[in-house]
Write a structure and sequence with these properties.
Blueprint lengths: L8 H8 L22 E4 L4 E3 L7 E7 L7 H15 L6 E7 L7 H10 L7 E5 L2 H10 L17 E5 L5 E6 L8 H23 L11 H24 L3 H29 L7 H4 L5 H33 L3 H31 L5
Parallel strand pairs: 3-4, 4-5
Antiparallel strand pairs: 1-2, 1-5, 3-6, 6-7
Helix pairs in contact: 1-7, 6-7, 6-10, 9-10
Length: 358
């Protein structure tokens, strides 16, 4: 029987019906106000202006060296940890403001910074007039003047600021003390994950409106659609519906090619080569779950490499009416192709949806 080259409209309609249950909207990016313009002194004596941080994503913290409740050193240790974990993000800066500018001199800030291994190229410690610091407290909504003599209200929150100087989120810089150590640790780690995700979103290049807002969900939807099309194509050929079979398989090749292009664009351009690690996404996951994820991801990746050229070759054989060889090879390629498509969805689910984030 002669092959049909042009895909049936059924395949094109299936392509348009991406699985809506998998697609998800990206997390919100509400603004919390803007950082007021400032000129402050760094620990090395140099002046730093808001304009010097334009084009960078930065994390702000507020401390005083003589912290009465001992929470400021905890906040600073959290920033020290983030300095290490975000070391590969070259456009990220950390800015610590003292809320006690009368006593926290640049020399003391220098000693404090060195004690926390602060990289002077990426982590700034700023001081200035009391009026300027007061304005910062109001802008970041944690201070409205001294309520009592000698009292210095401050915050244990970390603030993420975008490239334009807008405050985009506030996150806890210390563990809360509820008495449940495990719960406090889980809550703290979850908030830090959210902070790092926000940083990565702000570092990502601005994309056209027609591009997906959530690339991982979009890519998982393409894998899910490919799985459905493969199964439909298999059922169609078993029922001798050759035209429908060809439509499904040719459309699956197109969907898989779109997935590959989208996947590479997301990791090279949007993520700028930064990997998304399971251990960072879900530090609370049991160790065996991490190993299971790596096993699924490894098999998915290894099989995806040969299945792409093999699928194209099988399609070529079918379209050229070399059906005996086409059928023989398809029996081997089909289950591998289906496994790669299905595990693509499983990898997405494990990496982004396995545990609740609320």
């Amino acid at each position: 029987m002669r092959s049909i080259v042009h895909p049936h409209w059924t395949g094109l309609l299936l392509l348009a019906l991406l699985p809506g249950t998998i697609l998800a909207q990206s997390e919100g990016s509400d603004l919390y106000g803007s950082v007021p313009s400032f000129t402050l002194k760094e620990r090395n004596g140099q002046e730093v202006r808001l304009e010097d941080l334009r084009g960078k994503v930065w994390i702000a913290s507020f401390v005083l060296i003589r912290c009465p409740d001992g929470k400021c050193p905890q906040v600073t240790r959290t920033v020290q940890r983030l300095q290490q974990e975000l070391a590969s993000r070259k456009d990220v800066r950390f800015v610590t403001f003292t809320v006690d500018p009368e006593r926290d001199t640049p020399e003391e800030l220098q000693t404090y910074a060195e004690a926390h291994q602060a990289d002077p190229e990426r982590w700034l410690f700023l001081t200035g007039s009391e009026e300027t610091i007061e304005e910062f407290g109001k802008a970041f909504a944690f201070r409205s003047g001294k309520e009592k003599k000698g009292e210095l209200p401050h915050t244990q929150r970390l603030y993420v600021i975008d490239r334009q100087g807008n405050i985009r989120g506030a996150y806890q810089g210390i563990r809360r003390m509820t008495g449940d150590t495990a719960l406090d640790e889980e809550w703290f780690e979850q908030d830090l994950r959210k902070l790092k995700k926000q940083v990565d979103r702000l570092l990502a290049p601005e994309l056209p409106a027609w591009m997906p807002s959530d690339f991982p969900a979009f890519n998982a939807s393409l894998n899910a659609l490919a799985s459905v099309l493969l199964l439909l194509g298999y059922i169609a050929i078993r029922l001798r519906l050759v035209r429908l079979h060809i439509s499904c398989m040719v459309t699956t090749i197109f969907v898989s090619a779109l997935f590959l292009a989208s996947y590479l664009f997301y990791h090279i351009v949007v993520k700028q080569g930064q990997p998304t690690r399971f251990s960072e996404q879900w530090p609370q996951a049991p160790e065996w779950v991490g190993y299971l994820y790596l096993a699924i991801l490894g098999s998915h990746t290894l099989l995806a490499i040969p299945v792409t050229p093999l699928a194209l070759y099988v399609a070529y054989l079918g379209l050229r009416d070399r059906l005996q060889k086409h059928v023989w090879l398809a029996r081997w390629v089909f289950p591998v192709w289906l496994y790669v498509s299905v595990t693509g969805v499983v990898v997405y689910w494990m990496l982004y949806r396995l545990y609740p984030t609320a």
